[in-house]
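Predict both folds.
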Amino acid sequence: MKNSFFKYSKKCLLLGIFLSLMGFYQGAAQKTVTGTVSDETGVPIPGANVIIKGTTKGAVTDFDGNFSITALAEEVLVISYIGHVSKTIAIGSQTSISVTLQSDVQQLDDVVVIGYGTVKKSDVTGSVSRIDSKSFEDQPVTRVEEALQGRAAGVTVAKANGQPGGAIKVRIRGVNSITGNNQPLVVVDGVLGGDLSTINPDDIAAMDILKDASATAIYGVRGSNGVIIITTKKGSGKGKINVNYFTSFSSSPNSVPRLGAEDFAIIENLRRTNSGGAAIYTESQIAAFAANGGTDYEQEILRTGISKNLAISANGSEGNIRYYFSGNYRDEEGIVINTGYNQLSIRSNVEAQVKDNFKIGLNVYGSRSENKNNTDRFGNGQGSFIYKALTWDPTTPVYNAAGEYNIRSSVASLNDNPVRSLNETRIRDNEERLNATINTTYNITDNFTYSLILGTQISSLNVERYAVEIGDDQLPHTSFNNNKNTSYQMSNIFTWQKEFGDIHDIKLTGVQEYSNSKFQGNGWNANDLSLQGRGFYFAELAPNSGQTVNNEFNERELSSFMLRAEYILDNNLFLTATGRYDASSVFREKERWGFFPSVALAYSLNDLIENSNSLSSLKLRAGWGQVGNQNIGPYSSFTTLGFNSYAANGTAATTGTFINSIGNPFATWETTSQLNVGIDLGFANGKGNISIDGYKKVTEDLLLNATIPDYDGGELGANTILKNVGEVENKGIDLTVGYDFITTENTNWSSNFSLSYVENKVTQLNDGLTTIIGQFQAPGGQGNILNFIEINQPLGQFNGATFLGTWKSTDDIPLNSEGIPIAKPGEAKYVLDENNEVKFGAIGNGTPKLTWGFNNTISIKNWDFNIFLQGVHGFDIYNIQQAAITGGAGDSRSFLSPDQVNQWTPTNETDIPAFAHLYESSRYVEKGDFIRLSNLTIGYTLKDIKTLNDVSIKLYAGGQNLFLITDYSGYDPESSSRRSAEGNEDVAPGINVGAYPNPRTYTLGAKIRF
């Protein structure tokens, strides 16, 4: 018993000694570590988290950025603060630590947003272009599209016209669809379906453009036209306020040459006498025109437009909350009288790090805009108001002797006085928009993350229209339409990533997504509705006035599943594979689901060039994928009915129905397959970089209207059915070159050049057809079509006659079927068919092949400069505006072109016709190629002014569209025009029927930061 007691006591003693030694060791190893956390500017960061890695033990920095923590020497500290890049520090023998956290704005430069996640630039496998705010912040842009223009290879941006708030067309790698929408998908902070025209450019941190199918396949049925992912700004660090104000002065940079009143009167007399009529102007009248010059209606409707833009933002972070608030007001006067645009927008981005593993953000955006006398809302059957002004009678003044408008003239344009039309018309497009997004991220484990995106978008567009001229009734025509769109989206995103040693890196992303959108429209229209100066909502309807009511509703849903796998081997081989499964309600149930796969591979050759004196990086890329297009009407695959009333034999009218459209239960997606190969290389020790991509994409199963026989429903009201029968091909090359020419302490010069070449071709049409007639009608009421679609040719073919000059008195003029000469000397001569009739066919194409942009940013001490050039080549313009002033048929029969001074006469047989001739001819097809100085801005920043403390002031001045090199005779080859209900705009590009001039603008502004 005694021995047992001693043995037990000995064990206890040994255990006590061991525990005491362990306690001594622990006490000796633990120590107090103090430190300071500050941002990159040296400002202390209060509320930063200091955590011992792998534990929940930690501390928070005080108001001065100081912290104190007890830890072991072998432990590691993780220092983090919202809006900054986290940093890990091994403690070792240190007892005092000074930590600097870099803002995550810098981190943005190192990653690319690829949808539902990010990837390092060096790890990108697809064709992705990034545009950060630095590339356009020195340019006074008011539209996001202007920031895109010329800065990303493969992206084409064209202003349809120069009207404030006007449409700007964005296309990525050509045009895919003939009947569907070709606009790229816009994703703003994870929410799909954004509108570029409504976003404040100052709110944008970066834009990532997904171009090839291996990158866009993650968006499945919505990704066929490319994807633009916009990341808005977030606050970080010490609170800052930014104010940017500029004012602009805009005017038309040129005018369209036309005859003055004197020459017009002489030529008009000659035109009438040549046609067997009598002269209408006397010698005394012509002498009076020579003395007073007549009236130039172009100058009567043009003016200098003064615009103002104010943007204010505040951003920063407090504790675990980061914030960004902004407001923007723009007020733009159009260079055409009584036109303009104004918009007020606000944004609030707030993000909170609730716990170390849980983050939540709320983004709210609201805007209200008013477009004054939007050109698309005018009655353009006889051409736009620009068209009418350029063809109006210069011998008739705006007002008569009584001070009233001269409404019409018996010569030149037969339309109403364009000055009266613009001044007396009141059209307002009032749009209100509210977007809200909730983003949450929860780190379930160190490797597994769940994110939720909830987004909703609400927009309401009210169009109030009161026009004094529509047709010949001379009655005021009034209409009102309310269009409301509501949509919401829910995205569940699961991400798992794990590194296995230094060799393998695997990342899996799974997405379940649902979206719903609804459209509600209603309105009315009436003629002879008098406002009597009391405002639109106090209009009075005259007795027996015509009036109609319209209503519309549609809805669409999209349900999706997506899985993406990313694999990196030894930091050299990069593989990305994606599959997305989409179901869209616009198709019947059996055709509703579609699967869209993609795969991309990249290989880094950096190891092979590490000793190279010229190359600093080299990567090869290849990818293939499929994406879809569901951009058709929600009920296009269903048979729809129309309603009308009919009074048989003079009896009371009864209501009946008719087949409005015949549905196709087998209609399904348009599918685009794309193959992309690319190479990325860096040179000159990282100062320069080059990316080259070659691609081929084929869009199959294009939805086209195929004719059906009468016995199958055609005689019942509908004679076409939507089928998947067409095919379009795009092939091209994208090139991007960047180089930092100078990088010194006081001087920097960086340049970026992007170039895109694309060949578009229609390879298949429905029912074996080789051509399909378009829908763009020439003005004049004759119904002549200016465009068509042709097999094995690009979209955008011009339809017309080939002009050969004039018939001369010595020509053997052919006879028609009745034995009568088809023309007389002095008339226009065209290529004829076998029946001696004018032969119509392809005479040009309006789709550009080559676009480029060259952006330069230079800073010399306090001075900075931005120079941006752009060019577009390989396309034609169908200048119907020029045809109108040259006496084409229709409602503009008189000659106004200065060329007519040298028109054909029996003694001077020139190639300028002396008689009315066709609008639709190659005589009016011109080369559209141009080079433009889009922006030149010079700025000076006031720095190191002691009395201003932390205030920075930058003053700048510049100009946009300062010069244009082109052979085009109109205002601007980039501008085109089209009326509503004239088909897909990409099937009829480059046609000018009086486009609003693209202005030249001079800007003065100031940026203040404090």
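Second protein follows, with its predicted structure tokens after the sequence.
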Amino acid sequence: MSAPAAPVLSAVRATIIDVSRWDDAPLVGRAEELGRLLGVLERARSGRSSAVLLAGDAGVGKTRLLDELTARALDRGVRVLSGHCVDLGDVGLPYLPFVDLLRPVVADPTLAPEAAADPALAGLLAGRPGALPPVPPPGEGRDLGRPLPGRAAPQPIDDGRLQLFESVAGLICELAAAGPLLLVLEDLHWADRSSRDLLRYLLARLTDEPVAVVASYRSDDLHRRHPLRPLLAELVRLPVVERLDLAPLGDADVGALVRGLSAGVPERTVDDVVARAEGNAFFAEELLAAGLQGEALPLALTDVLLARVEQRSPATQQVLRIAAAAGRRVRHEWIAAVGGLAPTELDQALAEAVHHHLLVVSDDLRYRFRHALLREAVIADLLPGERVRLHGAIAAYLRSTPGAGTAAELAHHAQESNDLPGAFEASLEAAAEACRVGAPAEQAQHLETALALWAAVPDAAERAGRDQPALLLETALTARTAGELHRAIALLRSALELLGDDGDPALRARLHYTLAQTMVRVEDHTAAHQESAAAMALVPADPPSEVRTWAAATHARMSYAIGLLAEGDAAAEEALAAADALGLDSAWSDTAVSQVRSRQGRDLPAVKGRLEEALLRARRSGDLEVEMRVLYNLATVAFEAGQVTEALDWTRRATLRARDLGVEWAFYAAELRYLQVNALYMLGFWDESLAEADLLSRVPEMAAHVRAVGLLVQVGRGDPATRERLAWARGLLPRLDAHVLLSMVTAAAEIDLAGWSGDPDTAVDLAISTSRRLVKLWADDHLAVLRLVATALGTLGDAAASARLVGDTAEVERRQGQGQPLIELARSAVAAFHELVGEMGVEGAAWNSRVEAEVARLAGEPAVERWQAAVEAFGFGHVYEEARSRWRLAEALLASGDRTGASEQARLAHEVAVRLGATPLRAAVENLVRRGRLDVALPGVRRAAEVDAVLTPREAEVLALLAQGRTNRQIGAELYISEKTASVHVSNILAKLAAGGRTEAVAIAAQRGLLPTP
């Protein structure tokens, strides 16, 4: 790498990084830092000087934060003066940032007439910094004054510069006399010495003036001998100065930034940018643009990153190339072995790389690049032959030095150096290492690498110790454990195709039943049954064998899944008998679960007893996957019986074990996590529920419903971030259309959100489309439809109630018509369940009670008994829905004239809403209390008598008639006043409620509880 002149490179960097493309970008993740800067601003407004030294890496967002501060300052009436430092190498002009900062005074001398006439400022205000007094040689000039105890001595200042400095300070004070002032100096790391001296003087001089100073600099540019370092050490000792370090953004903030920069950006692109940007806002923007354009690393970003490398010594550049090829983190001995540098030269090169913030030393004493993209840029700049040679040298070192690295590292460097047989063997060993430490995702990745190399290694079968179909099966099983179900299916189909019809029957049978077990997890039950039947046809029942036993166990499960109970029973009995005969405890356990779950009507103690026996056998066999299936069913049985606390106990034990063994995103482990998040939500532990849903930011797509279920808490709380998570979930649905739980949870949250937002049309459309899809995918269990229907009907009931309030009969009929398809969906779902399965579970019965209550409400009936039934039905442990039903029960009791009962139900619902932080429900209950003038004390709710503080008694009467749709003439006739007087009262009501029309006034009054109860 050649090293062009430093000023040219620095100018390129300044141009690329500092050109503001963030004007419209959202400010995310900087609330705390902005708060501190605004605090400095407020001190200036109160008449006290203060300053902040804002530090951060290039591109981390300093300029964007300062832009926001500037905008907030201007909104507060604070004058802002900004100056920018520019790197001009050794020929920099003195005081350049202050010339920039004082341009407004040059443009308008009336801002500071006294200072504008000061001859000492003539050159500065004329924009001719070169005409100003030069920096005196060391030892010459006059000191500013004695240093304070513990403070470094200030640089000497000659008489001419002292006059200039005092004049600048006087100018700033004159400007501040007219109002508070904010001075912003950017890129202080490029400041010339004269500007640094002037800044030191000003910060020492300004103490009791309404002036705030914020100076930014790049911390990654400050090597040990950088001239700004001693000044910073001195300035932070001043009482008015504080330092603010701008750390990289968090992953969630980078994701929010990316979505704000490009609406509708795919989540895969967001995840990629988040992973690679490492909290740097500029890098995120560049990578986003590259992702949308199909580039790997943008040229502009590469230039910025390599500019810092190209300024270093040849030995340092060589060290960086070795480190880049070695990996993100590299041991000292690797660089020493591969680089061929003398020990002293190596130490000097590493010191230079560390001191200039290109490499940092990790806690494990390895070197790593300060930012991963810097490593990417260095790798991209390597010539092909150089890259191969470096990887080959590293691979040779690893082979010759036992314990120097891992098999995964050797596999990578062998492959990059074109040693494909060596990479193949090392990949298999790396997979074995990953298996030993319980890392299925990494194990699958290494096995996939070996499969990709199979054709390029002539003796692959001998080196691997198994043939290619067997390796495909092993990889598929590992991918399934890691939660990559679709990838597992593809691998199994490849193995079957490779074997052909003449392949080993036992291996083909195993592939078929493994494929069936995997396909059922992506809701393809019919195809799964076909695969298990194919497995049964390939191996005989006599003599019993392990393959036949598992084929029968799988076929029993698939037969039960599509309602072929007799066929399932026959296969189950064969599997249980063979498992006992062969001592296959895992196959016995798997079959017992399938058999027990196919008989919903059996008594609960017997079901639990059978499952607990299956758990014992599964653990005895050491088959973790079957053990997780048993645990999932134990939790599900308790959950369906309304024993949510017991279900939660099972899920906690299971998810902890899965996490410890590194299989938390395997199918049943993910389902247990989903059940746990849902149980916590239902029991009212909303903080814990949301925390569990967000435990890991990146999950396999087939486990996306675990994160999506967090939407229920967010919607219930009215969280503004709900729509962001909702957009993420909906973005997955086109690819995962058959993912029933993801579809159901997303739709449930979106329907609920539409309800609280007053959007019944969206709620109805979603409920109908999602319910039909669920019925299609889940042939024997349609009860999930009830939740969607009940919530959508509630939204329609709200719309119909509002229409009745203003006498809009046509609108009431339209909303009732919209409800008919929903009602039919719910009732057909219940009928189908009774026919295919039998009695509904506790939660299904609760939602069915809710549907019937909402049907009555849509018809305009109070239906107190139905709402009472809904409250009681949700009392099994669904805290939120019980409270929401109490709210509706309070409405029904109020309409029936039972004010005491309504008050009690409202109080109970309100207590739960407050405890959960369920803001929309809390507001709805409080509105009911106001509207109905209930005699119940709720925090923050006006008493009934306080309505008079908003409207006069006559205006309240007029408003009541407005709500009935009366005209001004009709109002006048009914109240015995003139039409003109009625019009005046209506105008007053519109003004007091800030309404644009009569209908809006009625809606606002209803929301604020100012309308009398019908």
